[in-house]
C-alpha cells in the first residue's frame, strides 16, 4: 500500500489541502491515519475516493450530496458525465487508480481503448501527459514505489514506440533534430513523445535516448551535424548541476540551436544562457517550434 501525504492528494486531485481538511472534519469519506510524529497519511482507497469525489464536485455535485452516495451510485454518476473535459479527467483518474493498485491489465486496456478510437497522438496529448503531470510529483518526492514507476513507464513507452513505428508521412523535411538526455536522466517518455511528434510531421530525427555522456553527444553532433539539438529533463541525480549543463551546451554547440523541455525548465530560477539555448515550457511552445522547422 502507498502512503500519500495531504500534499500528494492536493497535487493528484486538484483539491487544496485546506479544503481536504475541512471535508475530513465535516464528512465521513476520508479517515487518514497518522504517523508516530502525528503526520496525516492516506491509503490507496482514500486517494481513489477523493479523486472520484473531486471530479463530481467539480462538475456540479454538492459535497453533502456526494457524501450520502453509495459506491455504486458514485461510479454511475461519474460515468454519466458527458463533457469532453470531464471524460478526459475521468480517464486520467482511472489510470491513477489502476497505477496505485498495480492493475496493469486494466491500465493497459484503458490506454488501448483510447488509442483505438482516437489514435496515439491524441492519447498522449489528452490522457497520457496529463496523467504523467499529475503523478510526476510523486516520482520526485519518492511517494510512489519504484516498481510502480517502472511498470507504468514501460507500458506507456511501448505504446509510443509502436506509434513511432507506424508513422507514415507523405513528405520529409530537410532539417534534422538530434534528441538525447544527459547522464543519469532516465525518464524517457517526454523525449519519445517529441520524437513521435517530429517524425509524424516529416522531420528527420537522430534519437540517442537516455543517459548520454556529453562526450558521446559531441561525437554524434560532429559526425551528423544536426540542425537542432533537443533534450527533455524530468528529474536527474541530485549531483546534476543544471546551470553547468546549460553553459556546457552553449559553449560546445554554440553554432547549433539547443532546445530544452521538461520539469526542470520550470523550476530553474537563474537566468537562461543566451545564444543557442532555448527553453520549451509547454506543449504549445513545442508545437510552435515544430511548425518552424523546415
Describe the structure.
The protein folds into three domains: 1-79, Multidrug-efflux Transporter Regulator, Chain: A, Domain 2, CATH 1.10.1660.10; 82-166, Methyltransferase, Methionine Synthase (B12-binding Domains), Chain A, domain 1, CATH 1.10.1240.10; 169-292, Rossmann fold (3-Layer(aba) Sandwich). The chain has helices spanning 6-13, 17-26, 44-58, 63-67, 71-80, 84-100, 104-118, 120-140, 146-165, 189-200, 214-224, 242-252, 263-267, 283-292, and strands spanning 33-34, 40-41, 176-182, 204-212, 228-232, 258-261, 277-280. It contains 14 helices and seven strands. The model has no long low-confidence stretch (mean pLDDT 88). It is α/β, with parallel strands linked by helices and 294 residues long. Helix 3 (44-58) crosses helix 5 (71-80) and helix 9 runs parallel beside helix 10. The chain starts with 5 loop residues before the first helix and ends with a helix. Helix 10 links the parallel strand 3 and strand 4 (204-212). The strands form two sheets. The chain has a five-stranded parallel sheet with strand order 4-3-5-6-7, with helices on both faces. 58% of the residues lie in helices and 11% in strands. The protein is globular.
Amino acid at each position: 500500500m502507498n502512503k500519500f501525504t495531504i500534499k500528494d492528494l492536493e497535487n493528484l486531485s486538484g483539491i487544496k489541502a485546506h479544503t481536504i481538511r475541512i471535508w475530513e472534519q465535516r464528512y465521513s469519506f476520508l479517515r487518514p491515519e497518522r504517523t508516530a510524529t502525528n503526520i496525516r497519511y492516506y491509503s490507496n482507497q482514500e486517494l481513489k475516493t477523493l479523486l472520484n469525489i473531486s471530479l463530481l464536485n467539480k462538475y456540479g455535485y454538492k459535497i453533502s450530496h456526494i457524501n450520502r452516495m453509495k459506491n455504486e451510485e458514485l461510479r454511475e454518476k461519474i460515468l454519466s458525465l458527458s463533457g469532453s473535459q470531464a471524460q478526459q479527467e475521468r480517464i486520467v483518474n482511472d489510470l491513477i487508480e489502476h497505477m496505485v493498485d498495480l492493475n496493469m491489465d486494466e491500465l493497459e486496456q484503458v490506454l488501448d481503448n483510447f488509442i483505438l478510437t482516437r489514435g496515439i497522438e491524441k492519447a498522449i496529448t489528452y490522457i497520457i501527459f496529463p496523467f504523467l503531470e499529475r503523478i510526476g510529483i510523486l516520482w520526485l518526492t519518492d511517494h510512489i514505489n519504484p516498481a510502480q514507476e517502472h511498470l507504468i513507464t514501460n507500458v506507456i513507452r511501448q505504446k509510443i514506440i509502436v506509434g513511432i513505428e507506424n508513422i507514415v508521412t507523405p513528405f520529409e523535411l530537410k532539417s534534422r533534430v538530434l534528441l538525447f538526455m544527459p547522464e543519469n536522466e532516465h525518464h524517457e517518455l517526454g523525449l519519445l513523445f517529441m520524437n513521435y511528434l517530429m517524425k509524424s510531421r516529416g522531420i528527420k530525427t537522430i534519437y540517442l535516448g537516455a543517459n548520454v555522456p556529453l562526450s558521446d553527444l559531441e561525437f554524434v553532433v560532429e559526425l551528423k551535424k544536426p540542425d537542432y539539438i533537443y533534450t527533455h529533463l524530468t528529474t536527474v541525480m541530485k549531483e546534476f548541476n543544471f546551470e553547468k549543463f546549460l553553459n556546457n551546451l552553449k559553449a560546445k554547440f554554440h553554432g547549433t540551436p539547443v532546445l530544452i523541455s521538461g520539469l526542470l525548465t520550470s523550476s530553474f530560477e537563474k537566468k537562461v544562457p543566451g545564444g543557442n539555448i532555448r527553453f520549451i515550457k509547454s506543449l504549445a511552445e513545442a508545437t510552435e517550434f515544430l511548425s518552424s522547422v523546415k
